[in-house]
Amino acid sequence: GGAAAGEIRSIAVLPFENLSGDPEQEYFADGMTEELIANLARIGALRVISRTSVMGYKGTRKPVPEIARTLNVDAVVEASVRRSGQRVRITAQLVEAATDRHLWADSYDGDLRDILTLQSDVARAIAGQIKIKLTPRDEQRLANTRPVSPEAHEAYLKGRYYWNKRSEDGFKRAIAYFQQAIDADPTHARAYAGLADSYILLPVFVYAPTAEFLLKARAAATRALELDPDLAEAHVSMAAVHEMEWDWPAGEMEFRRAIELNPNYATAHHWYGIHLG
Questions:
Q1: String of b and e for 5-22 (b: at least 16 CB within 10 Å)?
Q2: 2-8 LR contacts (CB < 8 Å, sep 24+)
Q3: What is the rounded distance in angstroms from the CA atom of residue 88 to the CA atom of residue 173?
Q4: Do β-strands 87-96 and 75-84 pair in parallel, antiparallel, or remain unpaired?
Q5: Digit-coded pLDDT (tens) for 204-243
Q6: What's the whole-number average pLDDT of the chain?
Q7: Angle 74-8-236 (CA atoms, 0-180°, nearest 5)?
Q8: What is the pTM of this model?
């Protein structure tokens, strides 16, 4: 059933506006969008629209109620990011879909090393405003942040930016950036998962020996899971590896584990849907 009047149980994060004045920073704004979506997706009781669905609104000026009706959500988050050197400011506001009423707005300033904590703070504040009761598991997911190497995080964001291009050049550049992130921080589990995802999809876009990419994808997915056994992205990567090996039961088990860990992770549902098809 849908939410009762005034309740917010579904939300869309619109693409962050890049206020840096530098078009080369678009990858950073897109990365902030994706990561806030990922943070909100950790809240089990909240339905969060996927990155793929919201990125079509990048740069548009459509009214919030119209966007909300199209996406079938109760509320929308509009946000911007301004980066200057090693400092970053995130400004976000929550808008009720039915009334176009601003429910909350705030700004968050910090160092790039604390960017994951800033994003978690924004997600936690939004959860508080929409009166979603966080379970102990939700709290643990949102609190699971640590200082990150700015170099590693920036390379990771660039990797996902190019991975989302879905092209031969995009995947090759993504691999280079994910490897750069790993070189800067060998404990970066999400970078290993991104590397695995790139090796999984690259053969679809370029004629190449699949077996060679499979070995590399398996090694990267295995390392991601070793570093963070509760990372949904890593379980999806490993599921896809099993699929490439024609091990359907093992693939299904990994997909189901990923969805259990993060019920709102869109890629898990997308690839699992292909598996079931």
A1: eeebbbbbbbbbbbebee
A2: 3/74, 7/74, 7/131, 8/74, 8/75, 8/96, 8/130, 8/131, 8/132
A3: 25
A4: antiparallel
A5: 887 666 888 999 999 999 999 999 999 999 999 999 999 9
A6: 90
A7: 85
A8: 0.83
